[in-house]
Structures are given as structure tokens and as C-alpha cells.
Amino acid sequence: MRCPALLTLLALITAGASAHADPPRPHRRRVVRDHFRRTLSLGASVGVGSPLGLTGAFVELRPWRAFGVSLGGGLGGNFGPAVAATVQVAPIGTRRWALGAEASLSHHVAYAQGRDLSGGRELPGSSNWVGLGVTSEWRPTRSLLLRIGVGHSWLLDTGGYGVLREGELPEAEQAIGFLPGATPVDAARAAITGDTLGVWYVHIDIAPSWRW
Fold it and tell me: Comparing C-alpha atoms, which of 91, 96, 127 is closest to residue 111?
């Protein structure tokens, strides 16, 4: 009779100890933070034919993961220094990587203003371009942006360069083109044939980012 009583006593002691034990801690839910949303980036860009040209700087605001806007300025190319506004749309990707598209509008100011030609002709002092491209963007940390973009840009007023005659193109090409990429002579050549000048571009961007 003592064994059942002893077992009962042990069971009561065990139950009491369990009742006074610390309650289980609630499971913490891990929050996965997106590295794109609500970021401000201030960076540098290098490229050929891109809206900012060979080298430039930009500031980009990314209020939502799939949408951002940026303003920048750069050396441009043979069409002169540039200022550009770009819209980024990136609906595909993960919290660290995004595949998207970009649309840009850039304004270039010619290096040599008032370049006179015979007969009172003059090359345009500025030019406007519109560009469309695709981008692949990485955010290895919350504070770093890395991006590569490729696309195509079109000169909005190619006809304005139709002041050169075909026989003047070789001489003008030696005098005007001194940087990689398209030149105003290419625009003049396209204007003679009634075409729109278009160029392919590539750029690489790097920027520190801050959350807001």
C-alpha cells in the first residue's frame, strides 16, 4: 500500500513543479526588411551614351520598393554637360535585388556655343534626349546601392542639326568629336537622311543610401 501512496506523492510534487515553472516565451516573429523602400541615395555614375554621360552624380529618392525618381548632372559626351531626370520602376526581385526599367529625360549644353559656319549657319547650342532602358540593381546592405543599366536614347530634335552639308561632315567630325560616343556630326548625318539619331548606352551607379 505504501508504493501507490509514494507514487501519488511523487506525481503531485512533479505537477506542482510544472505549475510553478516559467511559462514558455512567446515566439518572436522575424521581420524581413526590404532594402529599397524609403531610401535616399547620393551617388556617382559612369557610362557611355547614358543620360549623365561619361561621369556624373545623382540623388535618388525611393519612397516605395518598386518606384524611385532621381536628378543628376554629369560631363555628358560630345553634346556637352548634362542634367537629367530619371524614373525607376522595378516590380521584379527580392529584398536585396531588383530587375526594372528606367525612363529618362536629359538636357545637354554644347561645349562650344555659337559655332559659326559659312553662310551664317550655326549648330544648336543645346540638345534634349529621351531614354529607355533596363536595370539590374543590388542592395547588398541597407546602406549601399549598386546598379547597372543598358538602354537606348533618342535625340528629340535631330532636324536642328541639318545645318551641315554632306561635304562638310568629314572636316566637322575632326573638329567636333573628341569624346567616346555619338557626336553632333552624327546628328547632322542623320538629319541629312531625315532620320532620328539614336544611341545605345550603358551606365554603372554606386551610392550610399539612408533610410527615412
Answer: 127
Residues 7-64 have pLDDT tens digits of 665 566 665 555 554 566 666 666 557 899 999 999 999 999 999 999 999 999 999 9
Which has the closest alpha carbon to 181: 206, 161, 153?
153
Task: Classify each residue of 79-109 as buried b or exposed e, where b means 16 or more C-beta atoms within 10 Å of its C-beta.
Answer: bbbbbbebebebeebeeebbebbbebbbbbe
What are the beta bridge partners of residue 131?
Answer: 104, 153
Q: Is the pLDDT of residue 180 over 90?
A: no
Do 124 and 160 meet the contact criterion of CB atoms below 8 Å apart? Answer: yes
Stretch 77-103: mean pLDDT: 94
What is the band of 170 on the pLDDT scale with cuts at 50, 70, 90? confident
- Coil, helix or strand for 165? coil
How far is residue 53's CA from residue 50's CA, in Å, rounded to a whole number?
A: 5
Tell me the helices (H) and strands (E) count for the chain, helix number first.
3, 8
Q: Look-up: residue for cell 552624380?
A: 57
Its pTM stands at 0.79
Contact assessment for residue 188 and residue 164, using Cβ atoms and an 8 Å cutoff: yes
| The Cα angle at residue 69 between residues 64 and 70, in degrees rounded to 5 | 135
Strand partners, 150: 134, 202
